[in-house]
Design a protein that fits this description.
Layout: H1 14-50, E1 51-55, E2 69-74, H2 77-80, E3 88-92, E4 100-107, E5 112-116, E6 119-122, E7 125-126, E8 146-147, E9 152-156, E10 174-175, E11 179-189
Antiparallel strand pairs: 1-2, 2-11, 3-4, 3-11, 4-9, 5-6, 5-8, 6-7, 9-10
Amino acid sequence: MARRRVRRRNYSFSRYTETNRGRDIAVGVAKWCGQIAIVILLAFLTVQFGVQTLTVRGESLEETYSDGDVVLVNKFIYKISEPKRYDMAAFRTGSEDGHYSIKRIVGVPGDSIIIEDGVLKINGESVDLFPAFSDINYAGLASEEIILDENEYFVMGDNCNNSEDSRVASVGNIERENMIGKVQTKLYKKKG
């Protein structure tokens, strides 16, 4: 019986690895670009719907926050729940491009608000939870009883004797649609 000669082929993998190496680099770059796009999208969504930083201007929140403090505002919370009494809230004043203000919500929809003899009264009861609210020197619009509509909020600064808030006609009652979010915490004091 004759032996059959088997011819062996030599396979070269060098051509295979060189072409795949180019594809691997392209896939790696595409993954990297995709990851960057996802991070940018998440950052946009966080700023647009989640959180924002604001700088406190003025002395109307003294003792709680000072001029130049940078605070973190939770914008998401007011998308899923209603603002509550005594929340420190950020809201828009004036037009869509108006500036943001930060004050404490003292009156919620349906409440009656009046300031008599330097005392804030909500629904006929004196409020003494905040020491700054004792001896209010200026009642403004609240010198007569204010009854809040179903989407109105009455806000005041913690340093109420040095605050432009719902007692002043230029601010007035804040409508629900102008509420931006709840101030969560102070991040740091801005220098300068």
